[in-house]
From TrEMBL:
InterPro entries with a match to the protein in the record: 3-OHbutyrate_DH (IPR011294), NAD(P)-bd_dom_sf (IPR036291), Sc_DH/Rdtase_CS (IPR020904), SDR (IPR050259), SDR_fam (IPR002347)
Annotated Gene3D superfamilies: NAD(P)-binding Rossmann-like Domain (3.40.50.720)
The UniProt record lists the keyword Oxidoreductase: yes
Annotated GO biological process: monocarboxylic acid metabolic process
One Gene Ontology MF term: 3-hydroxybutyrate dehydrogenase activity
Enzyme Commission number(s) of this protein: 1.1.1.30
Keyword Ubl conjugation (UniProt): no
Name of the top EC class for this enzyme: oxidoreductase
Keywords in alphabetical order: Oxidoreductase
Pfam family name, one: adh_short
Top-rank lineage group of the source organism: Bacteria
PANTHER family reported in the protein's UniProt record: 3-OXOACYL-(ACYL-CARRIER-PROTEIN) REDUCTASE, 3-OXOACYL-[ACYL-CARRIER-PROTEIN] REDUCTASE FABG
Name of this protein: 3-hydroxybutyrate dehydrogenase
Species in which this protein is naturally found: Gelidibacter salicanalis
Length: 256
């Protein structure tokens, strides 16, 4: 029987690349995200790889919706082996102008939803004596950049939570790890290029060259494929002893 994976925010960007790779490897997939064509995306990927799929557009701002998403997954698939906490948002602004509502939403989606989803999945994973929780943090979970107070705080928080869940999950073969990408060219980053250009008073081309890739030793965006490959490795049965750690896929940014 196929294993089941739920990937939050899997109808766009990094999450979609991860979902496609898991489908290719024969996992059944619970797709999730706010994109209006989410159900179609899920159906297409399922048909291509001959795996079972479902789709949810639960809004992760609310704890009850996160809990509902996990319950829905277990009802539809009967099991939940791999949880990839990937959904995330960004807002770039100097702190004195940072809207409180944006701060609260970033912390709710990027960090609090990781807690609520993992908590809701815990009992199922414990009963299965198998669970793999993969949190998509960021190089900004390891390093700071100006104008990203909410995002950097939330992503650092996720790395702390990852360590705690690894310790609590160890007796039950539940592992928890974080992946920390550098810049990946997705819709989230396309939006940031515009915001950063405004915040730094620069052209969009200069933002890519002088702000974003400046901190990466390898001067290229991180390909989504690399992140998906890492997620597949972490999800393996044989990866039991890989837990509580953060994998920087950041072109050497955090080596400095
Ligand atoms: P993206 O904007 O392409 O996708 C984000 C996904 O999250 C979408 O499916 C969206 O619908 C979903 N989402 C957003 N708000 C939601 C909400 N309230 N409820 C439910 N779903 C919601 O972004 P991406 O670049 O693929 O980012 C994915 C993850 O990777 C994020 O956690 C991001 O912080 C992290 N990350 C991205 C980069 C990068 O350079 N793109 C770098 C490091 C880390």
């Amino acid at each position: 029987m196929n294993k089941t994976v739920l990937i939050t925010g899997s109808t766009s960007g990094i999450g979609l690349a991860i979902a496609k790779k898991f489908a290719k490897k024969g996992y059944d997939i619970m797709f999730h995200g706010l994109e209006t064509n989410g159900a179609e995306i899920a159906k297409k990927v399922g048909a291509k790889h001959n795996v079972k799929v479902a789709f949810s557009n639960a809004n992760l701002l609310k704890s009850e919706a996160v809990e509902g998403l996990i319950a829905d997954t277990i009802t539809k698939f009967g099991e939940l082996h791999v949880l990839v906490n990937n959904a995330g948002i960004q807002h770039v602004s100097p702190i004195e102008d940072f809207p409180n509502a944006k701060y609260e939403n970033i912390v709710a989606i990027n960090m609090n939803a990781v807690f609520y989803a993992s908590k809701a999945a815990w009992n199922q994973m414990k009963q299965q004596k198998f669970g793999r929780i993969i949190n998509i943090s960021s190089v900004h979970g390891l390093r700071a950049s100006e104008f990203k107070s909410a995002y950097v705080a939330a992503k650092h928080g996720v790395i702390g939570m990852t360590k705690v869940l690894a310790l609590e999950g160890a007796p039950y073969n539940i592992t928890c790890n974080a992946i920390c990408p550098g810049y990946v060219k997705t819709p989230l980053v396309e939006g940031q290029i515009k915001d950063q250009a405004k915040a730094h008073n620069m052209t969009e081309e200069d933002v890519v060259e002088k702000v974003m890739l400046k901190k990466q030793a390898v001067k290229q965006f991180v390909p989504v494929k690399v992140i998906a490959d890492m997620a597949i490795l972490l999800a393996k049965e044989s990866s039991t002893t890989i837990t509580g750690t953060s994998f920087a896929l950041d072109g050497g940014w955090s080596a400095q």
